[in-house]
Structures are given as C-alpha cells and as structure tokens.
Amino acid sequence: MRRYGPAVLLMLVGAAVLRIALFSDLYLRYVQGGLRPYLVASGALLGLLGLVRAALTARAARCGTDAADHGAHLVAEGHDHLHSHEGSPRVAWLLVLPAAALLLFPPPALGSYSAARDEARRAAESVGTFPALPAGDPVDLSVSQFGSRAVYDSGYSLRGRTVRLTGFVTPGDGGAWYVTRLRVACCAADATTSKVEIRGPDAPETDTWVTVTGTWRPRGELGYPSAWPPVLHATTVVRIAEPSDPYEER
C-alpha cells in the first residue's frame, strides 16, 4: 500500500480544500469570498491528480513494474551513488496533519485573541468630511465605518443618529467591553482590528456575536488617540449566531 501513498496524500489535500470551499462556507474564515473559485479549482485539480497517480500506480503493479523505484534507479545511474527509492519525499507526509484538520476540525475564525494584538497596526487616517448617512434610523454601519466617522469625520455625521453595529465581544479594562470586527484584504493572515466601546448594558461573554443599537458618544479630539476607540451608548444588545463571513473587507 505504500506505493499508493502519494495518491492518497493528493486526494486528501484536495478533499480538504473542497470541503471548506465547495461544500461549506468555512473558507470565509481564512480568505475573501472572491477567492472561492480558485480554491475549488485547486481542490478539484489535486483530487484529479491523486486519481491519475493511483491509476498509474495500479497499472504499473499489474505489469509487474514499480514505476517509482524504476524512476529513482534511473536518477541514481546519472548521479554518482544516489540510491533513493522513495516514491515521494517523506516530508510531504506533513501535509496530512493540516489536511486532516480541515476535514475534521476546521479552525475557527480569528477572534478576541487576534484583535487584542492588532491595535498598533491600525493605519493612520486624515480628518475630513464624509458622505451623508442614509435617511432613517437605525442606520446599519460596519464597525470600521462607524469608527472612521467617529474619529475622523469633521462633519459629525453620526451626531443625533441611531446606528446598528454587528460584531463579536472583546473585553477591556475596568469592565469595559467592545464590539469588534476583523478586516481582511486577502486572507486572515493580514487581518486588522476595528472596535467600538459599548456603554450601558453589561458585557456578554467574550467572543459572543451581537448586534448593538445605540447612539454615538463623542470623545477626545478628532484625529487624535484620545478619540480612539469610539464610544456607542447602547440601547439594545441582541445575541446572534456567528455570520458565515465573519470579516469586513478592507
């Protein structure tokens, strides 16, 4: 069965990619939605290569020829005293662990642990005017949109408006808590944090997903660290299920 190892490995990795990208929305925990076709194509190609490799190995076995050993022998003849007879590098078997993890125990989306370590990476933005908000309250905003307007909008477009934010709970000092979202440009590896301090209701459990409705409370001077993080005085906090796409786009 050892000769079928490379084929099994290719099919296992392909199945893991297809499991998160084709048969579920789990891929959204790791990459942007626009990359789904490439993931599906990659998973299908790996699975196909595994089937082809298995078929070639089976045919070689029926013919009484071990194709992998024969190929290694030819290489050895052209390179002094190289006598490797492995069908594939042993290190390739390390791929079994992440592939099996994706199939059986997909890692969760990034949460409060990552958010707490990302504040120093927030990009500098300039104070200025922002487009008017849509009519009608409450107005739905992403956490990053609310933060940008609260900290940098010289037109104070949030003043007097009721807004609705969705994110996960992260704890702060002295009983403070935040509604937080992670923003990605390509994948989870480049995630940055946006968060809003919530005043009023008690904090739900850390990493709980919530939708918070409330009004903006100005703090500090626009564009300065004293204005960060922005504050929302909450009137309602509703617990929700984690969305299929947990990240905001940058």
Automatic annotation (TrEMBL):
InterPro entries: DUF1980, DUF1980_C. The chain crosses the membrane at residues 39-56, 91-110. Keywords: Membrane, Transmembrane, Transmembrane helix. Residues 157-247 form the DUF1980 domain. The keyword Transit peptide does not apply. The keyword Aminoacyl-tRNA synthetase does not apply. Pfam families: DUF1980_C. This is TIGR03943 family protein.
